[in-house]
Design goal:
Helix content: 40-55%
Shape: globular
Mean pLDDT: 93
Largest sheet: 7 strands, parallel
Structural class: alpha/beta
Number of strands: 14
Strand order of the largest sheet: 3-2-1-4-5-6-11
Low-confidence stretches: none
Length: 320
């Protein structure tokens, strides 16, 4: 049986990745700085789960003793806005701690295939969508900078020390496990989570901007189902993929498309919705081409917008 170590295994992407590897017959070892949520803690997805920093001596020894075939590194600190207020934790957790982890692997001759969760935030504000891996990365936040710095380090280590590493630039990860085994924690920031939580809890909904140069006037973003992300991780581990790859749909969905689909899925056609001003600096379109990874592995998103929102809605109702 193959073994995978998942860092950040109690989180949204890490948890779904752990479930997916387990479903495919892998032995899964989880590491997270926080105790996993109840639905993961009481599961059989993990043969071991260590609570602590992924760069701690205990975590590193656990990885070494587990002799893993793959390490999927989902742990880190995310969100653009907070990174501008507290950049220290982003550079420490996303770059410095990852450096410690990877150098331990190299120094101890641990040959596990390394899969790194990067971000579309490395691109900054693209000039011409969809983003492609060849486009110049120009991050606009410490979060994006810390992810780009880690990519650069991993590429250098791959060239110098033979590290096998796949790096994925996620766009907006969304949706939930189709069996409602896992989903996002409360108060996620993207529009799908905000709209569905408002439906569930009776909160207000405000959509920012309807005067963008897009077909319906609302901004367009790329949303990828969390199960599709987990499948990309699995393919990278099984096929020993190296390099940097986008994980996006290539087209994206507008805010109005998301709102209309959510109203239909939740059966709330008369829910009041407010419209706010466009936010300064928000690009009209931010989507990513995944043609490079598709050509190499056959991966492509298997979930459409309705499925994304339906699985998320099922999850939020389960949590309630």
């Amino acid at each position: 049986m193959k073994t995978v170590v998942v860092t950040g295994a109690g989180g949204y992407v890490g948890g779904q990745t752990a479930i997916h590897f387990h479903d495919q017959g892998w032995n899964v070892i989880g590491i997270d700085i926080q105790h996993p949520p109840k639905h993961l803690a009481q599961s059989t997805y993990f043969s071991k789960f260590y609570v602590g920093p992924f760069d701690s001596e205990e975590s590193l020894e656990l990885i070494k003793n587990s002799d893993p075939n793959a390490i999927v590194h989902c742990a880190g600190t995310s969100l653009v806005g907070p990174s501008k207020r507290d950049p220290r934790s982003y550079y420490q957790n996303n770059f410095v701690a990852t450096k410690t982890l990877v150098e331990y692997l190299i120094d101890n001759n641990i040959k596990a295939h390394f899969v790194f969760s990067s971000s579309a935030a490395t691109y900054g504000e693209p000039v011409l969508p969809p983003c492609r891996e060849e486009d110049p990365p120009l991050p606009l936040s410490p979060y994006g900078e810390s992810k780009l710095m880690t990519e650069m380090m991993l590429e250098s280590y791959a060239n110098a020390y033979g590290l096998n590493v796949a790096m994925f630039r996620y766009f907006n990860v969304c949706g939930a496990d189709n069996q409602t085994r896992h989903g996002q924690a409360p108060a996620a920031t993207h529009i799908i989570a905000r709209v569905l939580e408002a439906f569930r809890d009776g909160g207000d909904i405000t959509i920012n901007g309807k005067d963008y140069p897009t077909p319906d006037g609302t901004c367009v973003r790329d949303y990828v189902h969390v199960e599709d992300i987990a499948q990309a991780h699995l393919l990278a581990a099984e096929k020993q993929i190296n390099g940097v790859y986008n994980l996006g749909t290539g087209t994206g969905y507008s805010n109005l498309q998301i709102l209309d689909t959510a109203l239909a899925v939740a059966n709330k056609p008369d829910y009041p919705v407010g419209w706010g001003e466009s936010r300064p600096g928000d690009p009209a379109v931010l989507v990513g081409s995944s043609e490079k990874y598709n050509a190499l592995t056959g991966w492509k998103p298997a979930h459409d917008l309705t499925t994304i929102i339906q699985t998320a809605w099922d999850w939020y109702n389960r949590e309630l």
